[in-house]
Amino acid sequence: MASAARSASRAFLRSSSVRPAVRSSRFALPAQAFRASSRRGYASEAGEAKSSNTFLWAGLALGAGAGAYFYLNGGESINSKNFVPSKADYQKVYDEVARRLGEETDYDDGSYGPVLVRLAWHASGTYDKETGTGGSNGATMRFAPESDHGANAGLKHARDWLEPIHAMYPWITYADLWTLAGAAAVQELGGPAIPWRPGREDKDVAACTPDGRLPDAAKDQRHIRDVFYRMGFNDQEIVALLGAHALGRAHPDRSGFDGPWQFSPTSFNNEFFRLLVEEKWQNKKWNGPGQFTDKSTQTLMMLPTDIALTKDKEFKKHVDRYAKDNDVFFKEFSDVYVKLLELGVPFTVKPEDRYVFKASE
Ligand code: HEM
């Protein structure tokens, strides 16, 4: 969507143009109230929609064998049972995510992209390499209790936003859709290419992971390592992943924390690291959970876990590398985000056959 430039300028305008001397009125305000998203259901209701399709197309399906049903996809009728999506079909899903990201700018700082990135991460970050449980396979956040885990507060905005796309392309699993959208959001917000491959299935409620697998932002580097080593990441990969905090903001009504990490929170870049290194971060004085604010403008924020990256020698080494070199950050972020989005998935598509989606113009 030529989105890098568009969203950067939009966010830049919203952030009062001049940095860091001018205080951003947008950032100083509490998070906007969001449009009430219409209640859309997940598995069970999607199932109902499919079964009404089944009736609708029953006549046709009869001729095609038991259990098969048809639906319309871009005007073509497709037998979902035998339909094997190609790269071009996944590109159509990508294009729809990109189109809506470009059009629906009336949310937060002007984009649903950041919350899509977070959905993909929270769907994947439950992985436990010892037991092989959790990970992006399953999309179990469709169900309580996982959808109600404190760490997942606010991700309903992303899940609901993706429902119409799932309705348009019902052959894609939620697990594939959520991760594809997370990859698309990074690309459309000006980040690196995120190669992606299909193969995730949707599991039922029994596969929900226990609460407590995702990191707690109030903690320190020991906790960060515990959580990310459990998924199989090393120190360099952990730091690269945290660079996603260039995007979006914390919301008092979700995590309790408040504010964006950088001045253009809809642009994917290495600003998180540059600001972490170059700004002075002080304790925010407020009636909320402990977080940090930049001394210059007091409009930005860092979580205790973000600051922990500067307190630890091994982590800091990589913070400095990424602060200095956006290209290095892009390359290493892409590699590790691909790894994150693939945790726990028994792919049949080989790594070398991953798709690189064409970003919008
Ligand atoms: C130590 C690890 C991490 C902690 C403690 C953490 C914590 C948080 C918290 C508290 C928020 C604010 C949520 C809200 O109030 O809406 C947030 C937002 C966000 N996180 Fe993380 N996070 C971590 C790692 C990651 C990783 C690995 C990614 C992606 C690769 C990521 C991507 C994001 C994004 C894009 C947002 C903004 C969401 C929005 O604007 O709605 N985070 N994170």
From TrEMBL:
Keyword match Heme: yes
Name of the featured protein: Peroxidase
Keywords: Heme, Iron, Metal-binding, Mitochondrion, Oxidoreductase, Peroxidase, Transit peptide
Pfam families: peroxidase
Gene3D superfamilies found in the cross-reference section: 1.10.520.10, Peroxidase, domain 2
Any one of the GO BP annotations: response to reactive oxygen species
Superkingdom as given in the UniProt entry: Eukaryota
SUPFAM superfamilies: Heme-dependent peroxidases (SSF48113)
Role of this protein: Destroys radicals which are normally produced within the cells and which are toxic to biological systems.
Gene Ontology molecular-function annotations: cytochrome-c peroxidase activity; heme binding; metal ion binding
Family: Belongs to the peroxidase family. Cytochrome c peroxidase subfamily.
PROSITE patterns: PEROXIDASE_1 (PS00435), PEROXIDASE_2 (PS00436), PEROXIDASE_4 (PS50873)
Record-listed E.C. numbers: 1.11.1.-
Compartment(s) of residence: Mitochondrion intermembrane space; Mitochondrion matrix
GO cellular component: mitochondrial intermembrane space; mitochondrial matrix
UniProt domain Plant heme peroxidase family profile: residue ranges: 155-361
Assembly behavior: Forms a one-to-one complex with cytochrome c.
Enzyme kind, highest EC tier: oxidoreductase
Gene: CCP1
Catalytic reaction list: 2 Fe(II)-[cytochrome c] + H2O2 + 2 H(+) = 2 Fe(III)-[cytochrome c] + 2 H2O
